[in-house]
Amino acid sequence: MLTTDIAPLPADPEQAPRDSQKSIAGAATIISAGNLSSRVVGLFREVAKSYFFGNGRSASAFELASNPPSLFYDLLIGGMLSSALVPTFSGLVADESDKARMVEFGKLIGALIGLATVGLTALVALLWIFSEGLALVLAGGPLQDLSLVSSLLRITIPSIIFLNMSGILTAALYARRRFIFTAFTATAYNLTMIACVVIFERSLGITALAIGMLAGSILQVLMQIPGMRGIPIRLSLNWRLPGIAQIIKLFLPVVIGLALAQIAAVVSYIIAGHIGSEGPATMRYAAQVIQFPLGMIVVAVSSAILPALSMHGHEKSLEAFKSTLTQGMRLVWVLIVPASVGLYVLAQPVVALLFQRGAFTAESTAYTALALRAAIPGLVFAAIDTPLIYAFYARSDTLTPTLIGLVSTVSYLILLGVLSLLSEYGLHVFTLTDLILANSLKTGLDACLMAIFLTRKVGGMRGFDIVPVVIKVCIAAGLMGLAVWFVMVTVQQAMGSVQFLANAVTAVTAALIGFGVYLLMTTLLKVKELAFLRGLLQRKAR
Fold this sequence. Notes:
Elements: H1 21-53, H2 57-75, H3 77-92, H4 99-129, H5 131-139, H6 146-156, H7 159-176, H8 185-204, H9 207-224, H10 242-275, H11 279-311, H12 318-345, H13 347-355, H14 362-394, H15 399-424, H16 432-458, H17 466-495, H18 500-524, H19 528-541
Helix pairs in contact: 1-8, 1-11, 2-3, 2-6, 2-7, 2-10, 2-11, 3-7, 3-10, 4-7, 5-6, 6-9, 7-9, 8-9, 10-15, 11-12, 11-14, 12-14, 12-17, 13-14, 13-18, 14-16, 15-16, 17-18
């Protein structure tokens, strides 16, 4: 499934100007370094998993067992982090010298920890008791190893507590601007999983990965505790605190959309497990590749324009708001389209280079490459969708994106139902590619609706050069794609496409030549965003 990481919203749009450029740049550097390291190490985690377990039943069993902790984190604290926790916390710690406010902050943190501990412990106990029934639901059919899924669930389910506790601490530390304590927790989480697999795989098999997930979630909490020094935390179950009411008020508009989105994600993995024993694991490998350009381009640029969007979100400054938004969208488009075209053409050598070793066979590579190509349209649609979501958030409008998400998610579930019925009656074979393409179309529908409703709210986007840039980039990326395909075929004919070295030479050579062609074409077509990006990088280098 295609996902994006939504950065925490500023508690007060007017707060941004009070921050010095140096402090903002320093915080952005820390967060960016953490994001990059977590994605790189996360990719290595998938490489390690593919080496030991391939994309067979055991790997799929782990993907199914790891879904509930992720689901309940995204639905609970993870969903609150941007929409409710950070804004509420930031209002209390704007001035840490105000002891009265810090006392209130400590009471609120203590109440959240206490209430979360009780509620999550009860949830974990319930899920643990009914793990066999849960495994039956998640597996989606006889193709999966039910007993293995059930045993892995008993290990992964307790991580729900620690993932959500980590989310509460992350929100508190973001509010205090102590980013160093949060930036590398995901990296540590992934490193722990890798270490457990490498050390215990021979004796424990896929169970080592589940243990790594639980240990990594505990480590995330431990890493953030030192950053809480100076906060007079008082543990309680006081749900009547004003801050609790504010968090609930801010979170309610998004919770229904989050719940339906998580249901859609679970249904997707259930159907993937029903399609084939390797379905869930293959979806995860393809998604991991997609997450790199998604995070490093789409989310990074969207996060960069968020402070300016927040400052100009009011009605008196709509032209500046639209100028900032369209500049960010043009930049995202200039970067994401060539990345998408390159990944589509080079899907087979890229997947082989990353994963094809050990238990991950050539057949696994071919199947995963198909899944990756099906996910590429979703990446392109996300390049439109994500900046628009940030634009709504910058205008303090969480309701519209939630309603749009509801429409796109319901449409997605209906489409899955239609495909399932066609398959049941023998009219069409429901493949994993169909499933992933349906998810891509969901993102596309979401992006279209976001664009329509935002345009109605802020007025048209004419005069901001969006259409000319889109046309020029598509022409340049199309020619780049032809060049990449020609180089790939030529190198594979000369070296073959099985060995690691052949795949590495194919991917690197084709990517470099493709980049040169794209750079040449965008220069000839006078795409000014690349010049802007070069200037920005040069200023950063100084």
